Amino acid sequence: MIHHLVQNESRNNLIATKVAEALEQNRFPLLVSDRKDHLELLEQLVKKMSPDVEIVVLEGTLTNKQRRGSLARIAELRLTKKRVMLMATASLIGEGFDLPELDSLIFATPLSFEGRLVQYAGRIHRESEDKKSAQIIDFVDSYSAMFLKMYRGRISTYRKMGYRIHEDERLLGPLALYSRSRPTLVNP
């Protein structure tokens, strides 16, 4: 079922569009997928929509040295004020991953385990000098009872974490946008 989901052209275009919108808002997004081939496909789509963005991809075949090099590259790009985003397989942003400047989390594949969701959301909750707010963009795949049940579980978890839920009225059903204000991070 996931194979069909990640190959869905209109869904992938929607994800890439939401990434492009986040980049236009000068956000520093992290896009997460469980599938390396999905990241490759989304990278191509985002590049078409935002050709000036630098995309750094972290996936399981990279050595630890390559991963450290990728994170160093992000730091260099951010210093030059270039638009940059990170795409990663879910397994690489778990425990020990630290990039406090991230302010947007985009789930390209659904997940159901509350602990993973909280852990991944923690990647954008870290305080950083220029961060004003954190947001999660999540896609509702309502055509499948299993995916819909997973979505309902995520909604409950987002509420527990203090997120306000905003559904895109143009896409009610296929997309929900979650944002969590971080007033302690607003610059005076």
Give the helix tally: 6
| Class inferred from helices and paired strands | alpha/beta
CATH superfamily: P-loop containing nucleotide triphosphate hydrolases
- Which residues sit in consecutive blocks of at least 5 with pLDDT less than 50? 171-188
Distance between the termini: 48 Å
The number of E-state strands comes to: 7
The whole-number mean of residue pLDDT values reads 84
Which second-level CATH architecture applies? 3-Layer(aba) Sandwich
Major sheet attributes: 7 strands, mixed
Strand order of the largest sheet: 2-3-1-4-5-7-6
CATH class: Alpha Beta
Which H/E pattern describes the elements? HHEHEHEEHEHEE
Radius of gyration: 16 Å
Short recap of the structure:
The chain has 188 residues and is α/β, with parallel strands linked by helices. The chain has helices at residues 2-6, 9-24, 36-49, 64-79, 114-125, 145-160; strands at 29-33, 54-58, 84-89, 104-107, 133-139, 164-167, 175-181.
